Amino acid sequence: MNGGDSTNEELVHWLGFAAVARDWNCLTFEGSGQWSVLQRYPEKFMWPDYEVPMKAVVDYLVRLTLRT
Q: Distance between CA 56 and CA 6 in Å, rounded?
């Protein structure tokens, strides 16, 4: 997850390519109130309880891990 003032594209260049080069898995996402979401859905704002979307991402990763 990137900060509210950065983008996934920055994160991929900063960490993603290095992770892939080391055979690590890498997942990036942007939640409500972050740049690409606001471009598509301007009515979405940064949630004060950001643990809600974070829980969804962690749950998704756990499901992926349990499948392998």
A: 21
Distance, CA of 51 to CA of 37 (rounded, Å) = 17
Quick: pLDDT tens for 8-62: 777 888 888 999 999 998 888 877 777 777 778 888 777 788 788 889 999 999 9
Report pTM: 0.64
Residue 13: both structure tokens together = 């260049």
DSSP 4-62: TTS-HHHHIIIIIHHHHHTT--------TTSHHHHHH-TT----S-THHHHHHHHHHHH
Cα 47 to Cα 4, 44, 54, 68, distances in angstroms: 11, 9, 11, 32
